Amino acid sequence: MFLGVFTLSITTIPLAVYNGIVIGNSLGVAVTHSLKLSKILLAILPHGIFEIPAIIISISVGLQGINFYKISCKKEYLRYLGKMYGVVFILLFLASLVESYVSFLIAGG
Questions:
Q1: What transmembrane ranges does the database entry give (predicted)?
Q2: pTM of the model
């Protein structure tokens, strides 16, 4: 979703919508296969604590696409983008660790 910075936000919105559709479909399939909603939420929420803010940050940065070309002080803006990339990377890394070790155990793996 960060690519929106370079593509005038053209890629960010479809990717955000697609992400929502995939999550909704996954929950729908899990519920229709008689999995308890409480167990599904317990499996998703621990890593969602890190993943949801990462997605929100990447969407917000991706939606600033036009600003990338308008800002006169690009060095500071590139430094800001680098920090945001770093924050999102760390959050997604933590989410993957939690999903691997915590959510897997909660889901009954």
A1: 40-63, 84-107
A2: 0.79
